[in-house]
Design brief:
It contains eleven helices and nine strands. The chain has 321 residues and is of the alpha/beta class. Strand 5, helix 8 and strand 6 form a beta-alpha-beta unit. It is globular.
Length: 321
């Protein structure tokens, strides 16, 4: 295990291009596939039960009217066109890479099962170099019928399901109008585990009203669930969101870079060492970002976390007792 090797050697392990003290996604993919693997984000033109009136019409307060997936393909174009457009861009940097098809925008299991089958079956056949399909969705949008289909799909190509948790604290969930609770999230993770489907949890640091200890409690919660990976990023306050309007009216505090680096370093030190770290900094659309502006410097954020973990002799899982 990573932590054990670090303890014995007193040194960081060598990861592709960088030295990290956590189980980075790039390292995991290089181990598994032996070469560079990158994501191609496609848009299946899904909506969301938290926006179409099933749960609410407001959506999560940090989410724009278009939902997540700002770097996905054009939802009005067929998958083939979306794929080829993004593939051509990515291959300028990584001409020999393999692909993960990523359905990111909105809730990608929320729709008729026929639509899901048509989209996902088409997607996995777009190119023989596709090695995984990753599907972002809500924990309350996984019906037994959808779960059974994903289980079948997983026998033909590895399936990842990304679930937004964001926080475990009920008061924050209610304030942000998430429309689900941590118990619903937990049940979804176990349902996916029963079907041998890899699950990636998404958490956000810096949510209004939360302190460092609350954010650590959210990350520690994941240790008790059979998740495979986690995505961590700071809260993005975006234009044309409810939270953005609140910020402009009240200007509530957001995390500084130093605070974020400290919190993420502690979260990694308290996370099980087998959990793959898919990201520790996000990509907000520059033209829409109100705050925090430091989050635009993604590699600075990552480097500062690396520096802090080295300075404190931290590695993933080192503080778990």
């Amino acid at each position: 295990m990573i932590g054990k090797q670090l303890l014995e050697n007193g040194e960081t392990m060598n990861y592709p291009n960088k030295q990290h003290r956590y189980y980075a996604l790039d390292y995991y993919l290089k181990e598994k596939f032996g070469q560079k693997v990158f994501k191609i984000s496609l848009n299946g033109n899904f909506t969301c039960p938290n926006r179409d009136g099933t749960i609410s019409t407001k959506g999560c307060f940090f989410c724009s009217a278009e939902g997540s997936g700002d770097y996905a393909g054009d939802r009005f174009e067929p998958l083939e066109k979306q794929f080829s457009t993004i593939k051509n861009i990515m291959e300028q940097k990584w001409p020999d890479g393999l692909y993960i098809i990523y359905f990111q925008a909105n809730t990608n299991t929320y729709g008729p099962i026929e639509k899901l089958k048509d989209l996902f079956e088409t997607a996995i056949k777009l190119d023989p170099k596709i090695v995984t399909i990753s599907i972002a969705t809500r924990c309350d949008a996984l019906s037994p019928e959808v779960l059974d289909y994903l289980e079948n799909l997983n026998t033909r190509i590895p399936v990842w399901v990304e679930l937004g948790l964001q926080t475990i604290h009920p008061q924050t969930m209610e304030f942000l109008n998430l429309g689900y609770d941590s118990e619903t999230f937990k049940n979804a993770v176990y349902a996916l585990k029963e079907r041998n489907i890899e699950t990636i949890a998404h958490i956000i640091n810096g949510l209004p009203g939360e302190n460092k200890e609350m954010m650590l409690e959210t990350s520690k919660f994941l240790n008790h669930l059979p998740i495979n990976g986690v995505k961590i990023h700071s809260l993005f306050i975006l234009k044309n969101t409810i939270l953005g309007k609140m910020y402009e009216e009240k200007n509530f505090p957001v995390l500084t870079l130093e605070e974020y680096v400290e919190i993420v370093s502690e979260q990694l030190a308290n996370l099980r060492e087998d959990i793959i770290i898919h990201r520790i900094s996000g990509d907000a659309p520059r033209q829409d970002l109100i705050a925090p502006l430091w989050s635009l410097k993604k590699f600075v954020v990552m480097n500062e976390i690396d520096k802090r973990m080295r300075a404190l002799n931290y590695f993933q899982g080192c503080k778990i007792k």
